[in-house]
Design goal:
The chain is mainly α. It is built from three helices and no strands. It has one domain. Its main location: membrane.
Length: 110
């Protein structure tokens, strides 16, 4: 669990750095357009486009990785729950009945 938290922190830090670099490049581009020197604008525009592509690619990769990790975790938890119910059917029935009573009492209080 600690490694997952560390990994999430590193991903967030990398995202923060990517967005900072992208913002910095866009600010340079905006400042250069006020100067109106054509060669400078072209160079900054190319850098901004490259950073934008790189940032988008990283974000897509992180999103896909996060989706995969979440899917795997949920599948693992659902399998564990299914095994528990099959291994302990009477306990599962008792837990379900107790939850039903508690929910019924909460709804009945309204």
């Amino acid at each position: 669990m600690a490694s997952r938290t560390s990994h999430t922190h590193e991903s967030a830090q990398q995202l923060k750095e990517d967005l900072h670099h992208l913002t910095q490049t866009i600010e340079e581009l905006v400042n250069a357009t006020a100067d109106d020197s054509r060669s400078n604008i072209k160079e900054l525009r190319e850098r901004a486009e490259k950073r934008l592509r790189d940032t988008r690619d990283r974000l897509e990769a992180r999103g896909e990785r996060l989706y995969g990790e979440t899917r795997d975790t949920l599948t693992h938890q659902a399998d564990a729950c299914d095994r528990y119910v099959h291994d302990n059917p009477w306990t599962s029935i008792g837990i379900g009945a107790a939850m039903g009573v508690v929910i019924g009492m909460l709804i009945g209080r309204r």
